[in-house]
From TrEMBL:
Database matches in InterPro entries: aa-tRNA-synth_II, aa-tRNA-synth_II/BPL/LPL
Signal peptide: none
Residue ranges of every copy of the Aminoacyl-transfer RNA synthetases class-II family profile domain listed in the record: 264-429
Name of this chain's protein: Aminoacyl-transfer RNA synthetases class-II family profile domain-containing protein
Length: 432
């Protein structure tokens, strides 16, 4: 499962503030927070406490004005949301939007039990303070919201991990390796259904309208405008490209219209991946830009399912060899705002279409360092990829967030690479 937010809903006798995602804590200086308006938005429809983490995952997407929030719990139900906003907002509007996501996305969901299908024999160690130590050692530096520069040692570990995953895909699964561009066609994402399932994550690429008057008016205003973002927006247009939110969409586009008479296809690729994680961004755990290694299987239903199973098992072995604590669990995607979420989540979990490799990091949290997904005929049919009998091909993809994976190694083995077990260093071929 995706790491849950730190929900602490203890039994309450009076209305109390129950949740503070610490991402919000880190993004705002205290003196600024205290000057911002705080409003209590009473929920028209209270939700049971077990759904509080589902609500907490969505509050920052409700409105960009929300700088911080607490869920207010009473008698086993979340009855209100206390929000701190950048400007004195319209409480009625916030209430309407919160109730909209509650009705569409939160209330229809059921309580789910974590279902673990694999556990590493290693036990987690206390890793609190790892991110601060990496920053103090100059191994990571914040470059913007959810964007980090990483130094040579961190990068060496990340590349070592990636090499292992690449070699596994090519050596054991006969994958073809491709490098894809950093732009992806908007139409590809629309056909893949990404825009209706995950609009909250999508980052688009725009450019200035190709017109000499546009360039002239833009360039002459640059020095004097207050809001450069707005100035750019006024002069730009969408040109049909976005930043990729996952690597596998490139593969479906690449193979579109292909018949697989020769047998299944396996492709592996690595690239920069972009997801707008709003104020949920957190250190190297949840980034707006990260590096993803993916392995994509396309072919007949049972072959694709078997390849996913084999790769999952091989990754479990690799995690054990790396000396990492962790587990693989049944998971679901963070679908958003399509009104059908309860059904998607139910089917995804019941059919075990998604598993996640969860690795412990700091403060008792775990992060999903990889996911193992089966899509049925969804992409084969959307992109006209067919089997020998003319039917739509099935697909599966396995994706790894390399910064998260590398960060979990630092959390669990420490920031001093000299102190890492020799065999782990050898596996990653680090030069230390
Ligand atoms: P998904 O396609 O959502 O299953 O994502 C595949 C993998 O990408 C996850 O298991 C993570 O390791 C990684 N990932 C997803 N979102 C982020 C993020 N915001 N920051 C860093 N890694 C991420
Ligand atoms: Zn994928």
């Amino acid at each position: 499962m995706e790491p849950t937010l730190p929900v602490r809903l203890s039994p309450v006798r009076e209305v109390r503030l129950a949740l503070l995602p610490d991402a919000a804590e880190t993004t705002l200086p205290c003196n600024l927070r205290s000057r911002m308006p705080t409003q209590l938005v009473v929920l028209v429809t209270p939700i049971p406490d077990y759904l509080s983490s589902e609500l907490a995952k969505r509050v920052y997407y409700v409105s960009p004005e929300i700088e911080q929030f607490h869920l207010v719990s009473e008698g086993g139900r979340v009855v209100a949301v206390e929000v701190t906003t950048s400007v004195a907002g319209d409480v009625g509007e916030l209430s309407r939007k919160l109730d909209l996501i509650i009705a569409k996305d939160v209330l229809p969901q059921r309580e789910v039990e974590a279902e673990v299908v694999w556990s590493s024999p290693h036990r987690p160690r206390n890793a609190d303070g790892t991110f601060a130590q990496l920053a103090a050692a100059g191994m990571v530096a914040e470059m913007g919201e959810g964007i980090y520069a990483t130094g040579a040692l961190f990068h060496e570990v990340l590349s070592g991990l990636d090499r292992r995953l690449h070699d596994l895909a090519v050596g054991e699964f006969a994958a073809s390796a491709f490098h894809y561009p950093n732009l992806i066609s908007t139409d590809t994402l629309r056909r893949a259904g990404y825009m209706s399932s995950f609009p909250q994550f999508l980052m688009t690429a725009s450019r200035f309208r190709s017109d000499v008057d546009t360039y002239d008016s833009f360039a002459s205003g640059v020095a004097s405008v207050d809001d450069i973002g707005q100035h750019i927006e006024e002069h730009s247009e969408h040109l049909g490209y976005c930043l990729p939110p996952a690597m596998c969409y490139h593969v479906y586009q690449h193979l579109q219209g292909r018949g697989l008479a020769e047998g299944p296809i396996v492709v592996t690729t690595r690239g920069q991946t972009f997801r707008f994680e709003s104020r949920y961004r957190r250190s190297l755990e949840r980034l707006w830009e990260f590096t993803m290694r993916e392995v994509v299987f396309i072919g007949e239903r049972t072959a694709v399912a078997e390849q996913r199973r084999r790769l999952m098992s091989a990754v479990g072995d690799m995690v054990t060899e790396l000396g990492l604590a962790g587990q693989i669990e049944v998971a679901n995607d963070p679908f958003f705002f399509n009104g059908q979420i309860a059904e998607y989540v139910r089917v995804q979990r019941a059919m075990e279409l998604k598993y996640e490799l969860c690795l412990p990091v700091e403060h008792g949290r775990s992060v999903a360092a990889g996911s193992f997904n089966i899509h049925g005929e969804k992409f084969g049919s959307a992109f006209g990829i067919t089997l020998a009998d003319g039917g739509a091909a099935h697909s599966a993809c396995v994706g790894f967030g390399l910064e998260r994976f590398a960060y979990a190694l630092f959390c669990q083995h420490g920031v001093d690479l000299d102190a890492w077990p020799d065999d782990v260093r050898a596996m990653l071929r680090t030069s230390v």
